[in-house]
Write a structure and sequence with these properties.
Layout (H helix, E strand, L loop, with lengths): L1 E4 L7 H17 L3 E4 L6 H9 L2 E4 L10 E4 L6 H9 L3 E4 L3 H15 L3 E5 L5 H7 L6 E3 L2 H5 L4 E8 L5 H12 L2 E6 L5 H16 L2 E5 L5 H13 L3 E4 L15 E6 L5 H20 L21 H7 L7 H8 L8 E10 L2 E5 L6 E3 L12 H4 L5 E8 L7 E4 H15 L7 E10 L2 E6 L2 E6 L18 E10 L4 E5 L1 H18 L5 E10 L2 E5 L4 E5 L20 E10 L4 E5 L11 H4 L5 E10 L2 E7 L2 E6 L20 E10 L4 E5 H8 L1 H38 L1 H5 L1 H10 L8 H17 L1
The protein binds FE3-S4 cluster.
Amino acid sequence: MQIIAAHNIGFCFGVERAIRIAKEEAKRHGGAVYTYGELIHNAAVIRELEEEGIRAAESLEDIPQGSPVILRSHGVTPQEIERCHEKSFLLTDATCPFVKKIHGIVGEYCERGYHIVIFGSSDHPEVKGIAGWCRNARVVSSAQEAESLPFVEKLCLVSQTTASYEPFLEVTDILSKKAGEFLFFNTICETTATRQFEAEALSKKCTKMIVVGSPHSSNTQKLVQICEKYCNYVLPVSKDCELSLENIATNDIIGVVGGASTPIWIIMEVITRMSELEKTMAESPEVEKVEAEVAATVEQPIPAESEHAAAQDASEPSFEEVFEKTLVRIKNGQIIKGSVVQIVDGEVCVNIGYKSDGFIPRNEFSTDTDVNPSDVVKVGDEIEVEVIKVNDGEGNVLLSRKNVEGKKIWDELMQDEAIQDKVFTGIGKEVVKGGMIATINGIRAFVPASQLSTKYVENIGDFVGEEISLKVIEVDKSRKRIVASHKAVMQAEAEIVRKELWAKLEVGAKVNGIVRRLTDFGAFVDIGGIDGLVHVTDVAWGRVKHPSDVLSIGQEIEVLIRDVDIEKQRVSLGYKQLQPKPWTMANEKYPVGSIVEGRVVRIVPFGAFVALEPTIDGLIHISQVGVRRIEKVEDEINVGDIVRCKVLDVNTEAKRISLSRREVVLEENPEVAEELAKEKADREQQAADRAAERAAAMESAKATRENSPAARTDKRRTRREDSEYELPPVQSATTSLADLFSNFSEENEN
Ligand code: F3S
């Protein structure tokens, strides 16, 4: 009996990734993690996951609100994601990237007006998920169904990742004739395709095939179908205990293949069990010599009958020895050393001791995309590389030097205990949801939008392609994730500048600043990273009710440092101290004779005070308030009135300015001045007339007195009395003339 195991066995990339994510999430949340649907079609693995607290829920409604939920590799519809958000799940999307790519294709081409056709099983969760990312998708599972589709203008065909290649080609051919414009994407996962090709090749060569995997797994079913096409005996098993020797002959060549969701340990158990069966058979006298080879490549020729015989030698390696040999095969993800054999167009060909050379595509050479491989390595150099793909589909081994370099950089970064204190130069790579991806020494780091700057960033795309200084603020070693911040760098730089500024602050120095905030008690002024306070009493020389009377937000001003308290981090500033004192300029600002305008702020019995500016008031004396004489100031003006006045006098020492409203009114109203002049002239004329009358009366009285007998007889007495007599004041002469005369009469009578 010969056992030939397929080359590609064990979990596919997507399943392995989903399981790893689920286990990490379970660890992070201490168990109680849900997966939407079974993560994998394998009961043993599901049991193992359950033991770690990872439970599968068939419906989102079965999951408690706010639980951690993992979306499996099959993917889901946008509506289901929406529902998860509604239920506040802590969502981790483990959808296989290959499936996600299909979501993107159908979404894009649906938007472009293509009818979307999915080749696959309509009841498969992956297909349901894909259909959710576009409108009105049709699902076909066979050529017959494809034939029944109507002709359409534009058609785009994709495939379920686990579909079989041949029927897909058939459907592609049919649908290409059913559309004016036809596009198809071969989205059958390479893992699936490779396993199918291997299954086909093995089943053509083997007498019996064993397909290890869950009967519910789509790709296991496909493998069974393919094997059945070329091999008469196909035994699907999900675990080793289902194996039996019945129907297996000693000369059988048995091929072993496994589905993408079958863990490698189950396949190894099956193979081990077969080796035990093999021994049992070997102990039987009629059993021929059995040979087994595990993990032989499909290309390996199956030994001819004669070779079989030759192999039935006592020195034939045991199963364990052959198995040991398989461990040295190259596999994806393996890091190996090789020597450079050729460098062509930036691609490096490397001899890794495998049956075919490996090559490093240019984009896999270095984490620094600008590096030219020829400048770094030369033919004959030994380098370390990672196997990305054992077979790229054309028989080449795909290698990456970049991954090895990245791992080394990562390890170095992780060993650096001061990683979070360092500033790295990163490059903005791409805008992603919630922020940007940047590379730090070739390692991807997520920079959240809120960490891009100390200010709001309008367009994150401005950072793409640019150098950006970054600090690492979070590291998830298990997921190899770094969260970085440019804001932290900016803050650290500002802190240094601030410290330097504090050290430079000197009481008595003048500095420039920007008014940032105004409060009742003062104005906060930014003097280059430090906010100092100008107290309201230091805003202006005069009394101000609120700093906004003098200052405004955003105003650039020069201030005087009045006090610095480094401990309390307080700086007192003065603004008025750098402004001229108002009264020193009053002479220039308010020259005598100039006309000024101001608000009446106070009225007193002798006049009104007028505010010319916040710190300077002038006085209008009551006699200068109106054009005519008034009893009280309020007869003409009131508090709050705006008045125009002429400056009569400025006394800066006494801080007094005399104003006249009367003069302005007269200057501005000539008819009033004329009227006043006329009144004055009239008054003067009347006074002159009265004076003349009085003089005449006096003359007449005097003559009468001198000619009277009494005057003549006692001239001496009269003269004395005349000298003692005082005339009443002129202004009262008119009114007192009669009295005067009556006095004279009485005296004469006496
Ligand atoms: Fe993904 Fe392919 Fe596996 S699509 S889940 S890697 S079979």
